[in-house]
What we know:
By secondary structure, this protein is an alpha+beta fold. It has five domains: 7-86, Phosphorylase Kinase, domain 1 (2-Layer Sandwich), CATH 3.30.200.20; 91-273, Transferase(Phosphotransferase) domain 1 (Transferase(Phosphotransferase), domain 1, Orthogonal Bundle), CATH 1.10.510; 290-396, Serine Threonine Protein Phosphatase 5, Tetratricopeptide repeat (Alpha Horseshoe); 429-515; 579-678, Serine Threonine Protein Phosphatase 5, Tetratricopeptide repeat (Alpha Horseshoe), CATH 1.25.40. The chain has 28 helices and nine strands. The protein has a six-stranded antiparallel β-sheet with strand order 1-2-3-4-6-5. A hairpin with a 3-residue loop joins strand 2 (12-20) and strand 3. The longest helix has 21 residues, at 533-553. The two termini are 40 Å apart.
Amino acid sequence: MLETGMVLGNTYQILEEIGAGGGGVVYKASHLRLQTDVVVKRIRDEVRGKIQSRQEADVLKKLKHPYLPRVYDFIETPEAVYTVMDYIPGISLENALKQNGKFAQKQVFQWAQELGEAVAYLHSQTPPIIHSDIKPANIILTPEGHICLIDFNISIVIDSAMKATLGISKGYSSPEQYRDVKQVQTYYMTAGMGQVTISIDRRSDIYSLGCVLYHLLSGSPPDVNFNTRLPAGEIPGVSEGFGFIIDKMIEYEPKDRYQTGREYLDAVNNCYKLDARYIVHKRREKALFAASLGMFLVGSVLVGSGIRQTMREQEQIYQAGLLEGQKTAKKGDYEEAIDVMLSLEEDYDNRVEAYERELYYYYAMGRYQECAERGTDIIDLQIIEVGDDIQQEKLGDIYYLIANSYYEQDDYGNAQKMMEQALEYNQSNNLYFRDYCIVLAKQEKLYQAEEALERAKALDLEDDSIHYAEGELCVVRKQIDEATEHFQRAIDLTEDAVLQKRAVLLCAAALRDNGRLDEETALLETARNQADLQAKMVITEYLADAYMRQGDAHPDQLIIYNQKAIALFQELMQGGYVTYQIQENMAILYEENQDFASAESVLLKLAGDYPDNYRVYKRLAFLEADRQQHLDNTARDYSTMKGYYDKCRELYAQQDTEDAEMLMLDNMVYDLQNGGWL
């Protein structure tokens, strides 16, 4: 037991005991050096005995998320084990419920999204982290109106055998969690006779979170009796869609719930699509089109004359519009091509070709999110009336484009769903099966992926695509050498620019993961010289990153590799591809080469473009400190560095983020002050 005034680890002075959670006793403490409040948690003895390694605990120290407290330290003493994390000001949702009784859906929905992001982040870790005790008492409502999910600890890191230390919270723990705790109790009561199987996983967290949302909306946790419980959708003020999501979360059987935090979060973010009161989106305004069609239709149509067009004339207009859009796109003016398609859609709103072309132009521009969203709207609003087989195939193409847009955003779950829809309309396209194989492989669904690839082969899939898909499967199987061989064969054989770009980038990643940095660099250099304009921009950025890794791997050639990376970043910027990250990387490279003036110039320009971004001033502070370190002691002046630090601190205080480098910067300033430099 820690007493008030005691100092733990020569750093943390205990202020008071503030509670006890499922994992141990919790204290408020002060970080003596940084003069900030932290939480010190003593891990219960029964939990402590299950900690297998320091590395297991260190998993938590790597977590960075705006809706989770940051874990700073892990302290072992002869008497106990302690974790140190952020102190989160505010009140618990448990106390908020006592004060308010319940909350409106608008407010709860915001918390549902924030909690979903936190849980999805925990579940995405390797190994996944299961909170196992989500309840109102473990959710803090901050003064800014956001939430923070607290009281996760070492006992929730799931090992390779999917075992975890269990506790229960009445009204919120899942049915399987109750069962497992009872098994554990029986096990110990019978002197360890028999075998205990621990079955909780990500779905247990989903259940607990659903109970929390139900409580917030209704004023009480859901009745455990599934036959008498009021469905969430029947709670006054709760929409159909949101109620459906909550009811699915608290299904008795884990298989009937959302399977991961990410799946739940996707459902919440698309809640409006589940709601019966979902309002049809307003159609985009008609684009100007008459002029672009005039060259094709002179003499064929009398606009506004009152003469009724024949079916043949209408078809001519429609086909002319498709051709005009195609020609415009070939010139690289995709925006105008999209306007042409929108005009066609306005007049021929049940013809699928215009919608498919529109989505393709979004995809070709790399605007993948817009492509997916627009495509989903087209489907959801039932704009298209599917008639003959050709129309069905085109609708399949629409689903295929949406699927590929999700793929490009690394959203493989939605990519799979859309690809399955595409296959419903066209079972004869081998490319559908190839890409279906790939999105399954990305999710490590190997059996299904292999089955899809065999189907594609049966439909005479081209060799380049076969090698590409085999490469993806080999990556999942950790067969890196085989993966690189397949990707290289795909690169050599294909004339498909998109396939070639993907194969190059995946092959480069496989080589990098295998420590073959020279081969990675050589591949990217060759591919860059052969790629089209759009692919060249992407490959160039990857090549610049590869040069940076080469510099790290060969310190004696650091300057040379840094210069190569800088040249590529400059080329990208001259081509109009200017991002914050590229400029920050350039500044870091200049600094590593001790070209402090160039680094400062880049960062000051960034400060002008992003005046409210604390990261710019953080980088300037580090740069100035580095510059002074290279001067003689008598010539050093850290006042400019202190100015950048103060600005950085001011902006950082306004952020809902955690940045480990800020602690490093704080320590640096502290040391400079103690050393008499400031």
